[in-house]
Structure formats: C-alpha cells, structure tokens
Amino acid sequence: QVELAESGGGLVQPGGSLRLSCAAYGSDFSIYVMGWYRQAPGRERELVATISSGGGTNYADSVKGRFTISRDNVQYTVYLQMNSLKPEDTAVYYCNAVHSWYPNQVYWGQGTQVTVSS
Q1: Which of 3, 8, 11, 46 is most buried, taking the most CB atoms under 10 A from its CB?
Q2: Cβ atoms within 10 A of the Cβ of 29, count?
Q3: Which residue has the higher pLDDT, 30 or 21?
Q4: Cβ contacts of residue 28 below 8 Å, gap of 6+?
C-alpha cells in the first residue's frame, strides 16, 4: 500500500518554471515505477513522464526537452522539473505509482493544479 501526496503546483507565467514533488508513504518506494500524469479541463488524463526503479525515463512528446522527472529512493520522493512552460501545460498534475512486480497495484495522488498564464 502506498499513499502519494503532491505539492509544488501554482500559477506561473509562460516561459517560467515549476518543480512538482510527490512524497510517497508506505511500502518500499524503490520497487515502484513512478509517473506524472495530467488532466486538463474537458480532456482525458494523459501521461507526462515515468521513471523506473532503476532510473529509466519516458516522456510524452509534448514535454520532451522541457520537463525532467527524477526520483530520490532514500527520501521516497519523485520530482517533475518543468521548464519553458506553455499555456497548454495548464492542468491538474497527478502522481502515480505502479508496483514493478504486480502492475495491477496502482496508486494515485490527489493532484496539484498547474496554471500557466500571463
């Protein structure tokens, strides 16, 4: 069982930066594939980035070169550094954890709002 708590969202101007954090509470964090997803109003939730237990990363094409996902297996935290933000990045961002051995074990955070606007 894992509980996830996101933080770091807010209002930022186009071209600005934000860093999201997701703290995990519970089972061994290192065995989970961690991810960030986002959902804009009227749209489906979409993948932003994932990071495996070994540090391998995967990004949506729309954020490649601008966003960086990382994890700290000691602090049980995953980060999403977002640079060169665009209005279309506006969404609720959700942290996600998937057990590496039992992928039916999926956990979600409550989400944090990111608004990119001048």
Answers
A1: 8
A2: 21
A3: 21
A4: none
